[in-house]
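Hi L., both proteins are below.
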Amino acid sequence: MAEAAPPLRLAAVERRFRTEAGELPVLRGADLTLRAGEIVALVAPSGTGKSTLLHLAGLLERPDAGEVYVAGEAAGRLSDDARTAIRRRSLGFVYQFHHLLPEFTAEENVLLPQLAAGTSKAAARDRARALLASFGLAGREHHRPGRLSGGEQQRVAIARALANAPRILLADEPTGNLDVGTSDRVFGELMAAVRGNGVAALVATHNPDLAARMDRVVTLRDGKVISA
């Protein structure tokens, strides 16, 4: 039996930006493969293309060359609508700042991406409650973000990212806005959720202690991905 395609593969991706001084190459043939259940740390100095790599992996930008494969499907050069559809069904995002909608409750924040993907309201509510409970937020479902602690808000953001059962989770400094103790607990819960659901995760972090807990560490050098 043929081996299943990895959830995410970046093949020789290039990204260049136009500046007043001319073209600025940021990624120069970067390769990266994420396997199901694998958590990879991306540790790279600012200005080396870390955010660009995450944007390409998340289909938020198109590569200038090379390709982004999601579950074996060439996705990097598809139309905006097609890439949006893949993001909804296959990708979850967690950022340093939770970006929760302040006028909605925790449950509603986890509910909304499911409704956008076509899930029935009843099924979406059941999943939202189950996810929030798995992050220790049972009883807090009807609180708006302003009534939650920083750690609780980020737990809601992680639950939201997992709401549509994505194959891939992309996280940019997901605990960077939390104190050390809360960061450690929330990251542990994130890792458990990723492994428990067989999700492939790419986590950008400046925290060497968090990076050391992941399966492997990569960095960017001269526009390419290398083992750290």
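That was the first. Here is the second:
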Amino acid sequence: MRATARLLAAVRSGAARYLEAGTPTGLTGLLTHASPRSTLLYLYSTTLDRLSAGVPEHSVYRQSVEAVTRHRLALVEAAVPAGHAEWTARAHKLLAAHPDEFNISTQASVSGARAIKVERDGRAFVVHTDPVEVDMRDQEWDGELDEGGELEGSRTAAEREDLVHIIERRDLSEVEQVEWEPEPQLTADQISELENKIGAGLIEEVIQVAEGELKLVDTMVQAKVWEPLEEKPAEGQWVYFERKA
């Protein structure tokens, strides 16, 4: 099901139509995704990475999830947007020119960084996060009283310690911010073709399934689903599931 607004996406270059991010998809509560291709590549690669790291190869769960994930990953990789090769060349050049800005550990606390380079299943990704603008008028009052402005004059020892932390805090406004160019977008026709090949609804629904599968991996690893059952099944308990020739 597709909304008219999605089918009549604005023209950005010639006759190629692109889906406008944030517009209704026709499904309640589900909006058009801004970058579905790069998101799916990252989710699928991360899922494969966690499966190989935490689940044994003999596990039927790992084998089935890997088969579906690799199949869909290949379909997404085959859908290449226009100008992708040129964008890749510019991206490699930017990474080489600013190695300190992107070679950051995924476990480190990164404040103010616009993009982080991470490794997933043998692939390199630059995870880009846009800061969320918060309107103070929409925030609920926490009950804190307004005590007015700061008092002038000398400070106590405790107040001076707080000032030292404030002064020594790194000012990100003085740090050079590297602008990361997002991956070129797929056209509406390319996304429609990809949706038909995957056969699991809209591309936004596919993304939701991929996010759920990625979260499920951690749960399955914690439960160790590949280990034998604590209570052995009775003899012939599963016989009725078998298809007899």
